[in-house]
Amino acid sequence: MKDHQGRRAVRGIGPRVCALVLALVFPVAAGEPGEVAGLILTWQRDPSSTMTIDWHEASPLEKPVLLHRRKGTAAWKSSTPVASGFPHAPGRMVYRVELTGLEPDAGYEFRPAGRERPYHFRTMPKRLTRDLRVVVGGDTAPAGTFEKINAVAASLKPDFILWGGDYSYSDGKAGEIKKEILWHENIRDHLIGADRRVIPVIAAIGNHEVNSVVAPYYEANFAFPAAETYGVLDFGDYLSVWVLDTNHRAKIAGKQTEWFTESLAARAKDPRRILIPVYHVPAYPSVRKDEGTTLDVRKHWVPLFEKAGISTVFEHHDHAYKRTHPLLGGKVQDAPAKGVTYLGDGAWGASIRKVRPAADVPHIAKSQSVNHVFFFEFGPDGPLRFQAIDSKGEVFDRFELPRRR
Ligand SMILES: [Fe+2]
Ligand SMILES: [Fe+2]
Q1: pLDDT in tens, 351-390
Q2: Ligand 1 center to 78 CA (angstroms)
Q3: Cα–ligand 2 centroid distance for 207 (angstroms)
Q4: Closest-lying ligand to the alpha carbon of 347?
Q5: In which band, very low, low, confident or very high, does the pLDDT at 194 lie, cut at 50, 70 and 90?
Q6: Ligand 2 center to 280 CA (angstroms)
Q7: Is residue 148 located within the same domain as residue 193?
Q8: How many CB atoms lie within 10 A of CB 193?
Q9: Are 399 and 321 in contact (CB under 8 A)?
Q10: What is the distance in A from the centroid of ligand 1 to the CA of 164?
Q11: What is the number of structural domains in the chain?
């Protein structure tokens, strides 16, 4: 997978010196006593044996240590995190530990040393012998409906979350740092919540992460895919998830598509493997016109999805609900097994938009201006089972798609 060693070395030196100075200048930690300022779990490689934990502190710790143990065991193991300053937030620190050598499909507890109440997570199965539960969405926003949908997502108890870009709407700007801090607080308080179970997230980049050519908060928030902004994670022999960059930091045409072509072809050889791409700007938008990056996705990636036998992809950016008919080359097919179904369009917490009239988009089976998440489940056999769920927790669409076409 991606090698972040270079970035770690660069980020690790400055902040430690900074930490000493800031500890003197800002001696009082903000936030609730005993609570971290933010907490994000993701994977940089094998989800069945690793976990990357980022915890945020409002002010630097003198001696940061992360403790973890397998649930049901007594002894805590300690790890020293890599420390980085959070962009444009003097004193705020991100402490990162990648745990490796974990047991598959197993529960773990963890806590920063000095805090008593542990959080917990679960690794993914190496082989699929049970149902996997996934929540998918994008365009989260820092507050408002975000909190409600976070609570809905947490109540579904997914194994992990797929996010398709546009998080706090800070646009990577120094002056919008408050949105980042609020976004983290709402994840901590509503997505993690009272049971302290932390759901790992795999997060693609959106246009609102980028300020000109940099995405400082996105890179700081998500260890994967971080500065490279696209990558793939393989789950045992049963699933691969790609996060792709729709012209935000990496261009669609060129190096990214060359990499995606090879990466996809290698994994598509195994007919049992479920293939799921996640990206921001839709090929088949429910709100916006068919122009710009949409046409790039259609030109460069849609033929790859079709050739690889992908059943479904997740798109975002338009702030509405969308499910297309199964499509090949933009033409409606008469059965899900004959085309790619495009699901979207990113309305986790962001303000919803008015969808295009049905007559203008005959390739869209259902679209609706509604905040929502997708909840999808699959087991060792059988179809992918989907529900679209709104901010009240009500199911308003339900369908099945084949694992592969
Ligand atoms: Fe958005
Ligand atoms: Fe967007």
Answers
A1: 999 999 999 999 999 999 999 999 999 999 999 999 999 9
A2: 39
A3: 5
A4: 1
A5: confident
A6: 7
A7: yes
A8: 16
A9: no
A10: 9
A11: 2
